[in-house]
Amino acid sequence: MRLFAIALVASLAGIALFGCQSTQVDPEQTSAAGDVSASEQDSPLQDGVVVYYMHREFRCPTCLKIEQMSRELVENTFAEEMSAGTIQWQTLNYQLHEDMAERYGLNTSSLVLVSYRDEREVSHQVLEGTWSLYGQPALFQEYVAGAIRKELTALRLDRLRGRGE
User: Fold this and answer.
1) How far apart are CA 20 and CA 10, in angstroms?
2) CA–CA separation, 19 vs 16, rounded Å?
3) Angle at CA 110, nearest 5°, toward 107 and 112?
4) DSSP assignment, residue 21?
5) What is the mean pLDDT of residues 15-35?
6) What's the rounded Cα separation, in Å, for the pair 82 and 138?
């Protein structure tokens, strides 16, 4: 019985650490309707941050929850920046955008911040902590919002220093 309990805990920990490789949601419930087209994805910001939620074809409830929490945070906390075009939200199936999955080292659904200056990518960050923090909404929000603010600040500093011109 003890061996069974250890195996069960290890299995659950594996799902939590490595994402949704084994639990799937009906693809009909997770259509690509919210995903951007390849042409939209290929036209980055002049200056700003794109917050990508990159997911697999099959999505688990945790992936969907992380996407929902992230999107709501971006839309509510950074509404002014979104209106100004400094921040964009994009949802992509990374299995259809293999070049991006390879560039950012993705093997599970991930929140990725990509900073652009003069339409060129200048930095990116994969927010791997979303998986461990999704059950703690306040910490999740602090982590994601803090990372976005850091990227925006770095872009502003670059502009002040005259980089990218």
Assistant:
1) 15
2) 6
3) 120
4) S
5) 44
6) 22
CA 84 to centroid of chain Cα atoms: 21
Tokens representing residue 153 in the block: 């600040």
- Retrieve residue 125's tokens: 């960050």
Angstrom CA distances, 32 to 37, 94, 135, stand at 9, 11, 25
Whole-structure pTM value: 0.73
Q: How many CA atoms lie within 13 A of 131 on its CB side?
A: 17
Q: For 27-56, how does the pLDDT look when each residue is reduced to its tens digit (9 = 90+)? A: 334 434 445 433 344 445 678 999 999 999
Summarised one tens digit per residue, pLDDT across range 51-69 is: 999 999 988 999 999 999 9
Give CA–CA dist 96/70, Å, rounded: 21
The angle, 0 to 180 degrees and rounded to 10, between the axes of the packed helices 61-77 and 137-161 is 50
Q: Strands of 4-70 (E only): list them.
A: 47-55
